[in-house]
Structure formats: structure tokens, C-alpha cells
Amino acid sequence: MNDESILESTTLPRPPRVSVVMANYNYARYLPEAIESVQRQTFGDWELIVVDDGSTDESRSIIEGFLNDHRIRFRPVEHLGQAGAKNAGLERCRAPLIAFLDADDIWEPEKLARQVARFDHDPALGLVCTGRRWIDPEGRILNGQRDLPPHRGWVLPELLRDNFVCFSSVMVRRQALEHVGWFDPISDLAIDYDLWLRVAVHYRFDYVNEPLVRYRCGHGNLSRRVGERLQIATLILRRFALRDGHRVLPDDLARSQAATWHHLALAYRPHSRRESVRWLWRSLQANPRRWATWRSLASLWLPYRTRRWIRRLLGVPADWEDAYRSSEPDAMAS
After folding, report:
1. I need a surface site. Which of 14, 61, 177, 282 has the fewest CB within 10 A?
2. Mean pLDDT of all residues in the chain?
């Protein structure tokens, strides 16, 4: 009998309404909170598939400590990466609705119930997301971080301009994933954006306008690899243009490219003014009317402290560049 079969029952009960996929790599310090937040759901008809991608910390023993709950199943794999580990979880899903939870995030107790109700009300929906609260590595609420409400309906133009979908907030219809495919292992970064775009081509989105996810930030390598994430987003948009570009107006695609290249220029600014100018210019070529790019170009030669002072004077958060300043320049290949 192999290791995996020991950790899963040979006779599973009937399929639940919701399958939850959680992929983990070395997040032992956060795993208990994440798993317990699933157990605290007021909607109880779920299964949780925890995929551990070859962790070297205490993750395995922590997960095994939860296996007395028959709804929790454990699948250990070896270094498949973000996309591969999540797909390994999807292989084990039995429910018609699938939710995702990163191992460092937390759900509020009503999260699943609110989303299942939306799917029950509208059987044609493909995906339902929710709002979120931002927390720091210690779990403290970050009151300065706010998201605009997500979009609903046929959201492809809006999704091209901004990935407004929080990964740990998503519940998606299994049929939609069977239609458009699973996570693409092209990279460990931005794998959700590629999938949401494919879903949005064929299905309507909805959202629950409540902060039902506590989204942890400011820790881990993925939070710091801003430039690389934006490079992957650029590749995803190129692929989308070749595959499905005819489904949106050319202006929508151009605005999306302009926004991505603008953010890439901001990621380069602390490390290479030349590269920043190059990406700002590309942004303006895609959308000459993008005033935010013009402002960034005008301020490029201002010192960092001066930019912070001006933003404080205007009542705008002054620490918006910090994520870009801490990104790794070596990862930002042109």
C-alpha cells in the first residue's frame, strides 16, 4: 500500500456540495489557523483536500493531526510547484463546487454559506468571489489596505484591466474548470489570473460584498517577487490576445496592457531608471490617454522621499512603492 492510500479512506462517503483545495509548502506556522477556519464554517457539507508540496518543516505532522476529521484528506506530493500542487488537489475533488484557500489565509465562518447561496440562486454562474481583509504576518488587521468591490456579470473587460479576484475567496463551478482547464504550470506566479481569464470568457461572475477572507501579506517570497509576477502577467496577456483577443474590444486589451506595463515600470524604478522609462513608454504607446503613466513619467526624476512627501500632502497612501522597492531586480528580466 502506498503512502497516499494510507492517508485516504478506501471507502469515501457520498460527494459533498463543496470541495476545498489547499496547497501548502513550508507554512506550518499558519496551517492550523487555515484548516481550523474551514472547520468553523457554518456550511458543513464540504471536503478539504490538503496538498503538501514536499515541505521540510512540521507541516506534515500538523496536517496529520487533523485527519481525525473524516472531511479532511491529505495528499503529499514532491515539489510540483504552485500550479502542480493545486492541480493535484483538483484531481481529488468530488464536489460540483470547488473553493480554494491558501495555507496562510483564513476564512470567516459564513464564507462558504454565502457563496453556495449565490450558486443556488443562479445555476448559470461560473465563479463567485468575496471581499477580504488584509492582515500582516502576525494576523493583525491592516486598516490602510482597502479593495474596491469586485465586478459581477460578464467581467472580462474589467478583469483584463485588474485582477480583482482574491484567490482564497474563490468558489468556482467544477463544470467551468472541466470546460476551460486547470492551472497552467507555466509559472508559480499569477497562475490564478490566467485561469480566471479563461473562466471569464465563458461564464458570468458574481461576488459577495463582505470581507469573508483574511488575506495575509508581507511575508514569503511570493509577496516580494513583484517584478517577476508582472512579467508573467505580461505573458498571460499576450497569450490571451492570441487565444481570445477577438472576444474583447481592442481598447480593453490595450488598456490592460498599458496598466500592466505601467506597474512593471514602477517595479523597475527603484533599480533601473532606464528600464522604468522603457516600460512607461510602452504603456503610453498602448494607451496614450493613461494619465497615471504620464504622472509616473513626470515624477521619475524626483527623489523617493520627495514622492512620499507629495503623496502625503495629497492625502494618498505614501507607502505604495514599498512592495516595488523590496522586489528582486534580478528576477525582473526584460
Report:
1. 14
2. 83
